[in-house]
Amino acid sequence: MMIYLISVILASIFIIPFAIKTLSPYLWLDILYLKDLLRILVTFVSRRRRRPFFFVLDRFLEQTAAHPDKSFIVFENEHFSYTYTDRRSNQTANALLAQPGYKAGDTVALFMGNEPAFMFTWLALAKLGSPVALLNHNIRTKSLLHCFNCCKATVLIAASELKAAVEDVLPTLTEQGVTVLLMTKHCDSPGIESFSDKVDEASDSPLPRSLRSHITFKSPAVYIYTSGTTGLPKAAVVNQNRLLTALAVLASNGVTSSDVIYLNLPLYHTAGFIIGFIGSIETGSTIILKRKFSASQFWDDCRKHSVTVVQYIGEVMRYLCSKPKRENDKDHKVKLAIGNGIRAEVWKEFLNRFGNIEVREFYASTEGNVGFVNYVGKIGAIGRVNFFHQKLFPFTLIKYDTERDEPIRDDNGLCVEAPKGETGLLVSKITDIAPFVGYAQNEEQTERKKLRNVLKKGDLYFNSGDLMRIDNDNFIYFQDRVGDTFRWKGENVATNEVSDILTISDGLKEANVYGVQVPGHEGRIGMAAVTMKEGAQFDGSRIFNHVVSYLPSYARPRFIRIQNAVEVTGTFKQMKVKLVEESFDPGCIQDPLYILDNEEKSYIPLTAQVYSSIISGNIKL
Ligand SMILES: *[C@@H]1O[C@H](CO)[C@@H](O)[C@H](O)[C@H]1NC(C)=O
């Protein structure tokens, strides 16, 4: 298999001179990119052949041996060296082994914000051969239980500040026999055990390899949650093989051990965990870890720690650019920004303001089998079609009917490729080297992401759910998302999940949830068109309380539109398209409109004045 791969690569390299005409003027950069890909592949293949098996943990141990005293993590002015990290994770692992209700290999759920203990605990669990479910620390109650249960975890390790959230679901956890450990030195609550004190006391002696001898490349390593098109979040299975490939993400973008990485994205998401954390293990860099993103601390942090690489999502870049200009804007050592979702106009402004920083915009999803990186710095693009890349990972854009929300098919029932310059749905062939592992305990959702009979009868593709466009120079541009999710503040929001929550509140009969665009903001903000139950009155503060107790802040509908009845004309989908178009302008919409007001703790009427302040940017959402 791998031999075949290498021959494909070599063959492609010899073909390149003949393709000069089509590849120029980016030929040189394309070749450099191929060279990097080739190097990554060779490293990967040789690691896959090592016995005993070589996993991400082994790379961490190599780095610890190579520079034991180097800082691995810097957090709130404390430095943790590679050796300290290794010892602390051994202590965590030994403490866990002594814990009744846990045995090596059991799946553990980690419910914790960004802090060093997150990384120590993950490494500890890797040493014990345990898969780890990375729970989003913003979720509560029903969602929390759902996420916990869908990966069959038997132990929950939670940060001390999340105690109340754990207590909310404790009766159910206790009933299921789950061991609940809290990162605190002392805990009185029955059913919750303190864990930090046990870690402090535990030995840092090595964990025998035999504890993880059952692990293969197919074993789940982490579960990362993604919002689905329907219902509650799904746990994407990231297996050991995929994690091993993921080691390359920073290294392939020129990051080395002398780099200092600024990690301010949540560790429960792919960007923070895989790119920031796992990526730094490969390069042996130092991570400046932040609890969360702060636009006002960003550049001061970068100066203080001589940061050279920053991670971003679109919102991060926009917030940085919207801060008032400062004289020292260009005074820093950042040379590379790597991330996803930066808009062309923000990109230009960013370079203008903060100087010559290389922006590496990429496209990838947690569970998907295709990814791109814009390695030539073309503003606005997420990547580039490359002959070799397409041979290895066959992908294409197909025509898509956004009204009916399905791919367009021809008379033979096959999909139709979108010509250059036209928007189409990105689909990528599922193969041995581009597998789609799917979601834990969710065959139905896994099946939904597969598309059959795309270009030939019987073929099988992964449906990315993303609409893209390829221009004449082969650059790929992200256009939009299809279906029932939208992004707000860097998080995916599943519209059906939000409507489910709304309709279990008193008074509301139906709820149709969608995202609307607001000038000056990335993504879409949540809005719900609802109907009331017979005789019920809209009670803003009641709905507010309901929404706040069930949904994380980014998923709460900011606007509510009250309708007399759900419109019957057209399909449900068409209706949504119309609602999205009408947006939230009280000047155009006759129905009563409300806006969520955090100060008033209620939904209050949306006036024309508030509307114009939002549009002019005086009110930030
Ligand atoms: C911690 O455990 C790892 C193996 O799991 C081992 O290689 C390392 O030497 C241990 N560290 C210490 C300080 O004993």
Topology:
Elements: H1 2-15, H2 20-23, H3 27-49, H4 56-66, E1 71-75, E2 78-81, H5 82-97, E3 108-111, H6 116-127, E4 132-135, H7 141-149, E5 155-159, H8 163-175, E6 179-183, E7 193-194, H9 196-201, E8 220-226, E9 234-239, H10 240-246, H11 248-251, E10 260-263, H12 270-283, E11 286-289, H13 295-304, E12 309-313, H14 314-322, E13 336-340, H15 344-354, E14 358-363, E15 372-373, E16 383-384, H16 387-392, E17 395-398, E18 400-401, E19 406-407, E20 423-429, H17 443-448, E21 450-452, E22 460-470, E23 475-481, E24 485-488, E25 491-494, H18 495-503, E26 508-516, E27 525-532, H19 540-550, E28 559-563, H20 572-582, E29 593-597, E30 602-605, H21 608-616
Parallel strand pairs: 1-11, 3-4, 3-5, 4-8, 5-6, 6-7, 10-11, 10-12, 12-13, 13-14, 27-28
Antiparallel strand pairs: 1-2, 8-9, 14-15, 16-23, 17-20, 18-19, 20-22, 21-22, 22-23, 24-25, 26-27, 28-29, 29-30
Helix pairs in contact: 1-3, 4-12, 5-6, 7-8, 14-15
